[in-house]
C-alpha cells in the first residue's frame, strides 16, 4: 500500500550527501515478496565533478533481500543482493585519475566538509553492519569496459555473470583484505581492441586476505580450449594477475588470422605458459609482463612462402642450381608463392623488463633448418639485435641476416658476408671463368655456433639416381 517512488528525491539527496555521487533512479521502486525485499530498476550513477551529464555506471535492476525476523524488530539486515544489467565504463583520464574519482570542490566549507565526513563515517558503519549478514551476491548480464584516454584500444568484458557465496568480513583488517568468499564466474568474451579476444571464460575461486586463487580456470583462445590456474592479487595499488596453463592442440590458423590478419599458418601446436602482469593501461601491462611462453609443433603448413626455395637463393654453396632469371627476380618473386611444410617448430620466449627474448626459436623443413635469436622491446616496439640464420649441421650460420627498426616495419641490414655472397653469385653469371669460392668462416670446424636448441638438422636422403656411377 506504500508508494516507494515518493521517496526517490530523498534517496537521491541522501546518497549524494553520503557518497558524493549523483544516483538517479529512473525506474520504479517496488516491494518483492519472494524473497522479502525491495527491487529498484533503471539506475544511473554520475560523477558530479567529471562529465556529470554522462553516467559512468548504469544498472538494469538492483534487488535487495532482507532478513524478515530482523525487519520485524525494525532492523535492516541484507541477506542477498542481485544486480542485473550492470554497464560500467571505467576511464583513466590524467594524472593517474579515473572518471569515477571525485575531484575536490573548491567552494566547499571546512565545517560542512567535517560534518559530511562524520555523517559518512556513521553511515558507513551502519551500512557495514547492515550487509554483514549478506551471504550471496549475484551479478548477471554485466558489461565492464576499461579505456585510457591516451590509448586507442580498450578492454571490454562482455556478459559477465558472477555468483558470490559464503561471504564474511573481518572488520579488524584493512579494506578488501578482510573480505572472504567463494565465487563462480563466467564471462562470454574479453575483447582488447579489434583483436585479441578471449572467449568463454569460466572459473571457481576463493578470495582470502585480498588474494583470489582459482585452480579451475578455463577459457577459449584462438578457437582452442585452454585449462589452467590463476591468481589475482588485490592487495597492492594495482591488481596483479598470474596465469599458468597447458596448451594442447592450439589452432595455428586462428592464431595467424587474429594476430596478423592473414591466413598464414595451418596445423596445431602444443606447449605451456606462465605469465604475470599488473592490471592497467597498455604501458602498464607491457612493462610489467613477466614469464615465458613455449610452443612446439610438427607438420605445420606455412602458406605463401617456400622456405626451401628461399634457402636455395641465399645459400652460397647451392648457387650452381640458380639461374639468372631466379637471381634477378629472387628478391621479389622467389620469396613469394607456394607453401612450406615445417617438419618441426619450436618457439620458446622469455618475457620481462619490457622485453621478449627469443630464447629458442627455430624450425626445420625437409632440407633446411632456420633459427632466430635476439629480443623485442614491447614497450617501444623495437627489434633488438634480432638475427635470422640458415644453419649447417653444426648449428653455425651459413647465411646470417640482421634486422632492426620496429616489428611493424622491420628493416634489413646486410653485413659484409651477405654482400660478398651476393657479389659472388652475380659474378658467376657475368663471367665465363669459374669463380673460386672460399667457404665462409662459419663452416670451419671452429665456427661459432649460432643455434644449439631443440630443433635438429634434417637428415637428407638422396635418391638412388643421384649417386654417380663408378668409373672403370
UniProtKB/TrEMBL annotation:
InterPro entries linked to this entry: AsmA, AsmA-related
GO cellular component, one term: plasma membrane
Domain of life according to the entry: Bacteria
One of the GO BP terms on file: regulation of protein targeting to membrane
Domain AsmA per the UniProt entry, residue ranges: 2-168
Transmembrane annotation, as ranges: none
Family annotation (PANTHER family): DUF748 DOMAIN-CONTAINING PROTEIN (PTHR30441), PROTEIN ASMA (PTHR30441:SF4)
Protein's recorded name: AsmA domain-containing protein
Organism name: Sulfurospirillum diekertiae
Amino acid at each position: 500500500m506504500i508508494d516507494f517512488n515518493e521517496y526517490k528525491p530523498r534517496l537521491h539527496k541522501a546518497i549524494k550527501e553520503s557518497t558524493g555521487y549523483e544516483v538517479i533512479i529512473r525506474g520504479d521502486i517496488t516491494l518483492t515478496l519472494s524473497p522479502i525485499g525491495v527491487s529498484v530498476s533503471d539506475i544511473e550513477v554520475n560523477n558530479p565533478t567529471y562529465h556529470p551529464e554522462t553516467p559512468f555506471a548504469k544498472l538494469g535492476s538492483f534487488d535487495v533481500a532482507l532478513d524478515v525476523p530482523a525487519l520485524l524488530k525494525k532492523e535492516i539486515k541484507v541477506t542477498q543482493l542481485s544486480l542485473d544489467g550492470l554497464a560500467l565504463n571505467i576511464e583513466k583520464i590524467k594524472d593517474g585519475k579515473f572518471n569515477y574519482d571525485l575531484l575536490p570542490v573548491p567552494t566547499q566549507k571546512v565545517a560542512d566538509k567535517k560534518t559530511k565526513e562524520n555523517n559518512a563515517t556513521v553511515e558507513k558503519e551502519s551500512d557495514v553492519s547492515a550487509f554483514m549478514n549478506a551471504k550471496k551476491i549475484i551479478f548477471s548480464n554485466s558489461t565492464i569496459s576499461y579505456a585510457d584516454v591516451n590509448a586507442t584500444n580498450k578492454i571490454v568484458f562482455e556478459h559477465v555473470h558472477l555468483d558470490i557465496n559464503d561471504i564474511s568480513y573481518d572488520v579488524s583488517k584493512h579494506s578488501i583484505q578482510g573480505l572472504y568468499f567463494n565465487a563462480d564466474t563466467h564471462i562470454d568474451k574479453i575483447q582488447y581492441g579489434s583483436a585479441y579476444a578471449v572467449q568463454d571464460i569460466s572459473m571457481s575461486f576463493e578470495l582470502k586476505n585480498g588474494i583470489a586463487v582459482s585452480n579451475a580456470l578455463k577459457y577459449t583462445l584462438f578457437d582452442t580450449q585452454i585449462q589452467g590456474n590463476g591468481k589475482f592479487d588485490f592487495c597492492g595499488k594495482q591488481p596483479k594477475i598470474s596465469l599458468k596453463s597447458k596448451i594442447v592442440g592450439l589452432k595455428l590458423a586462428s592464431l595467424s588470422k587474429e594476430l596478423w590478419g592473414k591466413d598464414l599458418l595451418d596445423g596445431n601446436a602444443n606447449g605451456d605458459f606462465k605469465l604475470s602482469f599488473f592490471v592497467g593501461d597498455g604501458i602498464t601491462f607491457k612493462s610489467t609482463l613477466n614469464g615465458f611462453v613455449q610452443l612446439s609443433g610438427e607438420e605445420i603448413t606455412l602458406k605463401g612462402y617456400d622456405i626451401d626455395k628461399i634457402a636455395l637463393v641465399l645459400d652460397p654453396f647451392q648457387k650452381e642450381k640458380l639461374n639468372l632469371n631466379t637471381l634477378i627476380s629472387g628478391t621479389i618473386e622467389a620469396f613469394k608463392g607456394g607453401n612450406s611444410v615445417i617438419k618441426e617448430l619450436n618457439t620458446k620466449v622469455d618475457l620481462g623488463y619490457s622485453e621478449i627474448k627469443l630464447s629458442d626459436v627455430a624450425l626445420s623443413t625437409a632440407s633446411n633448418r632456420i633459427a632466430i635469436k635476439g629480443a623485442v622491446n614491447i614497450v617501444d616496439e623495437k627489434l633488438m639485435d634480432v638475427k635470422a640464420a640458415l644453419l649447417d649441421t653444426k648449428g653455425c650460420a651459413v647465411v646470417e641476416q640482421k634486422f632492426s627498426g620496429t616489428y611493424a616495419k622491420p628493416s634489413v641490414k646486410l653485413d659484409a658476408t651477405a654482400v660478398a655472397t651476393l657479389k659472388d653469385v652475380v659474378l658467376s653469371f657475368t663471367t665465363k671463368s669459374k669463380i673460386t669460392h672460399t667457404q665462409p668462416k662459419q663452416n670451419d670446424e671452429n665456427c661459432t655456433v649460432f643455434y644449439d636448441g631443440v630443433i635438429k638438422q634434417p637428415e637428407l636422403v638422396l635418391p638412388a639416381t643421384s649417386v654417380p656411377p663408378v668409373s672403370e
